[in-house]
Amino acid sequence: MNRIDRLTGILTHLQTKRTIKAIELADRFGVSLRTIYRDVRALEETGVPIIGEAGQGYSLVDGYRLPPVMFTKKEALAFIVAEKLVEKNMDEESNTYFKEALIKIKAILKSDEKDLIGRMDDSILVLDSHPISSQKRQSRNFQKVLDAISERKILKTVYSTFEPKTTTQRTLEPVGIYHSFSQWYMIAYCHLRKDYRTFRIDRFEEIQVREETYVLSKHPKLQRFLDKLSEEQKLFQIVIRVQERGLKFLQNMKYNLGYVSEKKVGMETEMIFMNSSLEWFLRSIIHMTDMLRIVEPAELKISLEGLLADIRNTQDSF
Q1: What distances in angstroms separate CA 193 from CA 148, 169, 172, 185, 188, one per listed residue?
Q2: Which of 43, 169, 228, 231 could lock 48 by a disulfide, CB 3.0 to 4.6 Å apart?
Q3: What is the CATH number of the domain that holds 295?
Q4: What is the pLDDT of residues 74-119, one digit of tens each?
Q5: Domain shared by 132 and 278, yes or no
C-alpha cells in the first residue's frame, strides 16, 4: 500500500470510532508505530483536525466531514448483527471486502452511534450461522431485545418453554444475545429465578421494554456465560449414514440437528452431528429411518428399536 492510500485509510479509520490507538492503526496497515506518527502528523499539516491524547489515542473533532446521510440507532445496531452473521457465512475473500465496506459505513456515523457500536459489540455473538427461519415473532422480539440491551432497560416478558410446555411471566435484565443452530438466544438475569438463564428469542409470547434501567457492568460478559455453557452442556456425537434418496429430506433441517460435517462412504453419505439430546434427535429423524442407518452411539440404536416398538404397540391398540 502506498502512502497516499494509507493516509486515506487512516483518515477513514479515524472516523469509525471515537478514539483509536496508534498500535491499532499500525496493526491495521502493517506498518511501524513511527510510520503512524509521521502519517498522523502529515494529516494534521494538511488541516485535518486530529486530537491526540496520551494513553487514549487519536480522535477527530466531532462533526468533521459530517456527511448528509444520517443513521438511526436501530440502523447502527443492524451493522453489528450483519457484520457478525456475514463473518460466519462468507468466504474469506468476500468477508474481507465486506469488512472494508463496513468500515467506510461506520466512518459516517455520529459519535453517539460509534459509542453504541462499541458498547454492543461484546453483547452479540454468532457461534455458527445458517439460514435463519423467517418467523415473524422472532423478528419482532429480536429488535426489542436489541433495544433493551443498548439502552440497558429491563424487559417484562411472557415466556413459553417447549418441553415441558409451561408459560411464565419473567422480568429480565438482558446480558447479550448469541446465534446458534439457526436460532437467536438471549442470556439474561431472571428476577423470577434469581439467577441467569438462557431464553430462545422466538419463544417469547410477549416482550415489553420498560423504562426502568439496570447496570450492565454488574453482569459478567456474554462470552463468560457461553464458555460456561459449553463446559456444562454434554454433547453427544452422532454418526449416521444416509442413502442418496434421503439427503433431500435432511438439507433443510440438518443444521437444527447440530450438523458438523459429511463425507461420501461408498453409495451413502456419512453425516456427523453434535446434539445434547439423543431423544430429540431421534424423534426428528424417525420419519426417514428407512433411508438411513445409525453408526453411533449404540444407545441411539437401542432407543430407535424401543421407539419403533412403542409406535407399533400404539397403533395396534386402536
Answers
A1: 20, 11, 10, 18, 11
A2: 43
A3: 3.30.70
A4: 777 777 777 777 666 555 665 676 677 677 767 767 778 778 877 7
A5: no
